[in-house]
Amino acid sequence: MKIYFDGCSSTWGSELKNPNNSRFSKLVCDHFGADEYNIARRGCSDKRLVRNLLETDLSPYDCVIVQFTCKNRTECWSEKMNTWVTFRNQIQRSIFNFRPKQREPMSKEEKEFVLYYWKHFYSDKLGIMNELIYYNAIRNILKDKKHLIIGIAGWGQTVQAPVDINFTEYTTASRGHPDENAHKVFAEKIIKSLESDT
């Protein structure tokens, strides 16, 4: 058995002492005796979740579990860096979050584009609509595959789409990510949901 996981820092295991052993994806896989395939990335967007599903052969996976991220994040292709660049707007500041292997910082033009996007295009209404579009795309991609779409509320952004499990209250580490106890609670609820679905 092999389970596919994707999401942001909450699924990646940020602020856990040993994410590879204590994040909820590992706990779920341990319970089922399954191989864990976790491609979550800190700071990623829902758009990336859809792109990963489209670019991945899902046939080796018995189940897919996708965690929705903050609706204000997005990504774009950078010809200069020949990679996808994720950008997000957090409270009172813009953070440009690059893939760890990217060697060059964002160009002046790319920074101007990101700031222009936040100032002139992004709104909460757009974020909610994008979330619903990505949600429906994921449901369609996974219609013939056992799956769960989960939400993990973070930094005041609850998931608006009708996800299978929406974690809105949980214990956190110092910077606001789910702590080890929260990951155990997440795993228990995911396991219960998967077992009741068989």
In short:
The chain is of the alpha/beta class. The protein has helices at 9-12, 19-22, 24-32, 46-55, 108-120, 124-141, 180-196; strands at residues 2-6, 35-38, 63-68, 74-78, 83-90, 93-97, 147-152, 165-167.
Keywords:
198 residues; Rossmann fold; 2 domains; five-stranded parallel sheet; globular
Could you give the order of strands across the largest sheet?
2-1-3-7-8
Number of strands: 8
Strand content: 15-25%
Specify the CATH class of the largest domain. Alpha Beta
Average the pLDDT over all residues and give the rounded result.
87
The main pleated sheet reads as:
5 strands, parallel
The sequence of SSEs as H and E is EHHHEHEEEEHHEEH
Q: Rg to the nearest angstrom?
A: 17 Å
Are there runs of 5+ residues with pLDDT below 50, and where? 90-103
Number of domains: 2
Q: N-to-C terminal Cα separation, in Å? A: 14 Å
CATH architectural type of the largest domain: 3-Layer(aba) Sandwich
Estimated structural class: alpha/beta
Q: In DSSP terms, counting alpha (H) and pi (I) runs of 4 or more, how many helices?
A: 7
How would you describe the shape?
A: globular
CATH-defined topology of the largest domain? Rossmann fold
Could you name the CATH homologous superfamily of the largest domain? Answer: SGNH hydrolase
Helix residue percentage:
25-40%
